[in-house]
Amino acid sequence: MKWMATEMVAEEMHPEHVRQLPLLLHAARSFRIRCLVDAKADIEKAGALDGNEYDDMLGTLLDEEVRKAAILREIEAAGCGVNLEGLAQKGQSLGIPGKAAVAAAFQLAFEGFVRCDLDGPDAVSFTFVTEDSSKIQPVYVPVKVVDEGKACSGCGACQAVCPVDCISVDDGKVTIDMDRCIRCGLCLTACPRALLPRKAMEWAMMDKPATPEDLKTGVITEAWCARITREDLRPLVQDGGVSSALLIHAFESKAIQAAIGAARAGGVPWKPEAIVMKGVPDVVRAAGTKYVNTPSMRLLRIVKRERAIAVVGTPCMMQALRKAEVYPSGTVDVGNIKYRIGIFCMESFTHAGIKQLCEGTFETPLDQVRKMNIKEGQFFAYPTSGEPKSASMKDVTKLARLSCHCCHDLTSELADVSVGSIGSPDGWNTVIIRTSAGKELFDAAVQSGLIEKRPIDEVQPGLPLVKKLSFAKKRSYEKTEAKRVEEKGYHPAYFLKLPPPPPPKKKEGAPVQADGT
Q1: How far apart are the first and last CA of the chain?
Q2: Confidence class of residue 169 from pLDDT cuts 50, 70 and 90?
Q3: N or C: which end of the chain has fewer CB within 10 A?
Q4: Residue 60 is part of a domain; what is its CATH number?
């Protein structure tokens, strides 16, 4: 690789600047940088960003491209495959945090500059391919490719980062005004169903490699069975109401000024809307699971000036938030997010799907359903009067969003604290603490008396069931990916490799074959 400036430039510039010059030149050839510079007039006309915000966006992306160029140079210099630990060490020697070096390598693989080899769940290496950006087919295209590929999570992150406001997300469907779209690729930069390498996300969470046990359910520092203590709120919340309790405590203690979540919209029964909560009354209004996709991440730009916020959402939303940290778009800053509260989610539904389930299967109009829940393999709908209606999840899954099959995360593994009902008795939540921020929030809510907790080991079926179902969802995604690869269909770049499944157990009394099996 021709990583050198001319002798004339070298004589006139500071040595450190000379060293940086080839990196800057490589960064300047970035598809995203060139596109955003060329489209400056369109961005100004759209009015989504002011002049300073535009400059900040370019500065952020240029810094990222320089970092990637430095890592690309190191991978080429190695002359052979570089593993994650080696890459992290090389990055640190350049003043690049280990987790940032790992993230850059996966992005280079996504773009085609390096090859990523997955020899096993823990064996990952990167090999140099090219430095010539002109030979790399642009991979940053409108996020429409994800939507049409039936992989879109409907989280709304693409809408939040679009610099020309040409994207809208509603009920799990992306709409793009292609006449206004500048093809900058920031939507794909933000999309959790485009590039979301699992290993890079693990390093972002822990700043080190994950253990084989972490593969099942993500990082677990603590796990509890818990519920809200306020009996007046128990009829309104879902299961143990822990996610609502965490928000209530955060507001009452003034730890946050706003929170992003979802509440039922007025007018259309059971069609939720993304809302910015400003206090406890809003938390109460938003209590309860809706099961219909909500593009809550589109509100990130609205709360950017708040000092500290919390976000409640499903695994794909937690993925979008963590990706925004690891791969910043420059248009949305997630630095003010103090708490990420993740919800367990096997799959979600469109509003039409929920309507078909309730009005078709349960013969109950949507406006007469007061609550829904999933428990022990059954989907329950609770009418305003009469007995609960239920159906097996095996049958209900047929009505779920097809794109949910592209998700391998059941328990919101990238959240600070994850909350669900699996593993705990009725009226309680299973709570998984993943980060110091999650522990701080949960412990404070318990100490305030708003939440009561029990060791998860004291309840049945407890954490073993959570881990079993969590890994089962990963296996399910593995099958989805294999099918889409075979059909040459779209699938997300997770760079995820699971260990081989155990051999099937032999049935007692089975005849022995000639080969001894």
Answers
A1: 54
A2: very high
A3: C
A4: 1.10.10.10
8 Å CB contact between 166 and 176: yes
Sign of the Cα torsion 119, 122, 128, 134 reads positive
In a domain, 187, yes or no: no
CA quadruple 460, 462, 464, 465: dihedral positive or negative? Answer: positive
SS3 content of the chain, % helix, strand, coil (to 5): 40, 15, 40
Per DSSP, 292 falls in state B
Q: Which domain holds residue 85?
A: 1-137
Classify each residue of 469-501 as buried b or exposed e, where b means 16 or more C-beta atoms within 10 Å of its C-beta.
Answer: bbbebbebbeebbeebeeeeebbbbbbbbeeee
Asked which of 137, 156, 186 is the last residue of a domain, the reply is 137
- Cβ–Cβ under 8 Å, residues 308 and 377: no
Tell me the per-residue pLDDT of 459-485, one tens digit each, with 9 for 90 and over.
999 999 999 999 999 999 999 999 999
Mark whether 327 and 458 lie in a shared domain: yes
Q: What is the pLDDT of residues 201-256, one digit of tens each?
A: 999 998 888 888 898 999 999 999 999 999 999 988 989 999 999 999 999 999 99
Residue type (1 letter), 209: P
Domain identity same for 322 and 233 = yes
CB 384 within 8 A of CB 398: no
Provide the residue type at 397 as one letter.
T
Examine the domain organization and report whether 205 and 111 are in the same domain: no
- Nearest Cα neighbor of 310 from 337, 277, 272 is 337
pLDDT in tens, 171-205: 889 999 999 999 999 999 999 999 999 999 999 99
